[in-house]
Amino acid sequence: MTELAVAPPDFAKERAIMEKTWASWPGVTGWLSETGHKQIGVRYIVTAFLFFLAGGVEAALMRIQLLRPENHFLGPDAYNQIFTMHGSTMMFLFAVPIMEGFGIYLVPLMVGTHNVAFPKLNAFGYYIYLFGGLFLYTMFFLHAAPQDGWFSYVPLAGPQYSPGKGVDTWAQMITFTEISGLVVAVELVVTTFKQRCPGMSLNRIPLFVWSMIVVSFMILFAMPAVMIASGYLSLDRLVGTHFYNRSEGGDPLFYQHMFWFFGHPEVYIIFIPGLGFVSSILTAFTGRKIFGYTVMVSTLVITAFLGFSVWVHHMFATGLPQLGESFFTAASLMIVIPTGVQIFCWISTIWSGRFRIATPVMYVIGFFLVFIVGGLTGVMLASIPINWQVHDTYFVVAHFHYVLIGGALFPLFGAFHFWFPKWTGRMYNEVMGQISFWLLLIGFNVTFFPMHILGLYGMPRRVYTYQPGMRWGNLNVLASAGAVFMALSVLTMIINFLISRGSGREAGSNPWNADTLEWSLSSPPPVYNYLHVPTVSGLNAVWDAARDQPYVAGMRFDRREILITHVLDAEPDHTEQLPAHSLWPFLLASTMCIGLWGAIFFAWWFTIGAVLSGIALIGWFWPSGEELHDHILRERGELGGLDLGMPEPAREEMR
Amino acid sequence: MTGIALVPVQSALHSAGPQAASIEHLWWVFFWICVAVYIITIAFFFIAAVRGRRRAEAVDDPAHDRRLGIFVSTCAAVTIATLFGLLFSSVATGNAIGTFGKNDPRQLEIEVTGHQWWWEVKYPDALAPANQINDANEIHIPIHTPVLLRLDTRDVIHSLWIPNLHGKRDLIPGRVNKFWIQADTPGVYRGQCAEFCGYQHAHMALTVVAEAPEEFARWKSHMGEGAPTPMTPAQLRGQQVFLNAPCAKCHNILGLDAYGTLGPDLTHFRSRPTLAAGQLLNTRGNLAGWIANAPAIKPGTLMPPNQLSGSEMNDLLAYLETLK
Questions:
Q1: Which is nearest to B323 in space by CA: B269, B252, B245, B244?
Q2: ipTM of this complex > 0.85?
Q3: Which of A269, A555, A573, B4 is spaced 20 to 30 Å from B155 by Cα?
Q4: Average pLDDT in the B139-151 region?
Q5: Is B97 on the interface with A (CB under 8 A)?
Q6: pTM value?
């Protein structure tokens, strides 16, 4: 049964069994039936990064078009499609999924477990995301892309003013990414709440994991709103309902409320993981725990709550009553308080730590320089009168790129460099890392800073061209020039990673002397993560570990068994067996695809897809022989049963 | 295609009326406070970084952490105080703008209706509805007079933005938004649609002509008159071309048997500085090109291409040029 023991040096035999237990099937079926969180996480990250490159190419095309007034490089048709694709790609197919990918990869490692809570569901979420993205791009290459912006306001996106399949494609792509987002949220919440290793009470959860918990809850509350918005839009378009049709008693403003009730939290869903990266990187590079851990966690939670009460500041120009709007000004300004407190806590951490510099930290410095500008222009946008002027202008374009690139992309690139040794076992090239950082910092500011001025000088967003004599030409040339540097930065980073992956210096298990549990594993981590479920005795698991830090013994190596613990103090409760590889997630995602893709062309496809999905679900839940066998044994009392029960002294020691 | 050679500055930082002026003032308050906050925060960051670089060992001392706690709390308190200041100045400005002009007896009412992709402008006359003046893509207003714009749309959501006079206000189907503007400096101010409204969102501009009240009255009485009667044979033939070609189905000319409402009113359109919602200067050449093949110039426009012979076109232009 379970007991505590001092780790002996070698477990070769057990490791071999675990390798076999957690191994994937060989070949293509193995790839499709994979349910390991690291593989799925990496797939999310790689896929999202490819979409990021696509979104970057779209941005470059827009920058070329805007180089000159009345330029004919792209017509209104192409330009409107491309800016819609850029926004939709970056928000739905890049920013959120890549953060989710990091969560899927890192959270089980950081909380000391073998896999996420529902591995088959996890794989399903990835395929749904992939298919949604591919669907959007397939339609794009078939010249049937949406062209009403990533927000698809009605009535412009309604059946009357946007005939064709573009908006339906967009709305359906939302459905796909929503499902996948909800899946990841459920995975991460359950994994962190029920699978933390003994000792990791709530107040010892790493800040990155906290950020993912907060984001997951935000996803759970925000996504249904956009699902309603885009679902009603689909119904208006496909079956002739009138949710947004004013002349039939619908309301176009209702769409805006629903969309921004999701749309604003979405921004936080994107940059809160970035805040988690900053905390992780700064902990490692200052050699001390983040100052004000409790404050940091509570400010994350407060930010999440406030994020749901500010959506109307996207609608100040719609002419809502003044008093009501003022409430949203106050709420929007309040966001500064928790974020500001976090920034001052990080500054305190740097002040009192031994501050070392490497590429990940450079990106964190970039985060400070850029994100704070975005925060401050956000303060300006919260003011109703100022918002009336700069709303829907290039000022706003500049603002949210400062927030999202500053708050999410800089930390993300820092995270790439920070965890690269863990993923690959090798170090990236430091010189190239620094070059990529400077290129991004300079390129970004040259691209986006002039946009503030453009907005104040009257340049609206989403214009495919502008007229000579508007005095916008030079600043647009400058912005386009900056984009070249940004592209070079990303290129440098990719080359760096591709080269270093094979030939970089050996990283060892913990090259940064970082504090979270994944750094106690070899690089790259074994397929099963931890041979024995570890225990932790402090916030900074690796630093606080005793030489003979106990681990949980007595769990089976020949089954995919995980330890379930209590929510608050992570006391062991029972063990649970996770399913192994399965093709059903892929098949279910495919059948749902048939229904959802088909539905926008012909409603009956939805029914066909539903029936096929029902069959796939039956297959999904059909118990395997092994599960039946274990069940029978358990009924007879011949299998240990799920309640392992720890010896009392061991429990005491672990608190 | 010639664009507008000389357009007035379209800028939120060159205010010409009280609303824009108070927003501009508020903007600079916010701007300088934010600059100060940025410099201070980044200075803290770099001081901390230099300090942290010098340490051989991270500090592990509760007393030290307590001092850091005081630092963070002080910063938070200053942040909150600053935010309150900003909130009050913002709300005060908002209220001042919100109540501006509402009780002024000199007010003027104008109806602005958005179309894909042009602006319909009407000056209703409450006493004699027949005297309503119809115009497009330009708004004439007398200076020092509060003007109430009633904003509506015929199709999708648009947003009226004349940055030198005021911020934006959306034109939303099914609801009329009231929006007050006022110009104190005479001049021509450019504005354009600020809410993405489809293909030609980029080419949906308008001009506001702010002039002395006497000039405005003169303009208005001129606009109230019907179109001048054609004088030359070419103009007469042109009028017939206008009536027989599809033109009259969509365009209105006061005094003529043409009542179309899909397109802009043409009664005095030659007095307007631009064509196609600010895209083209209102010259004979541009006009000919526009009539012949509008979709080539402005893809997506509802104005169809017109197949007219050379002489028909010349006659039509001769007639249209009289519509001053």
A1: B269
A2: yes
A3: B4
A4: 94
A5: yes
A6: 0.94
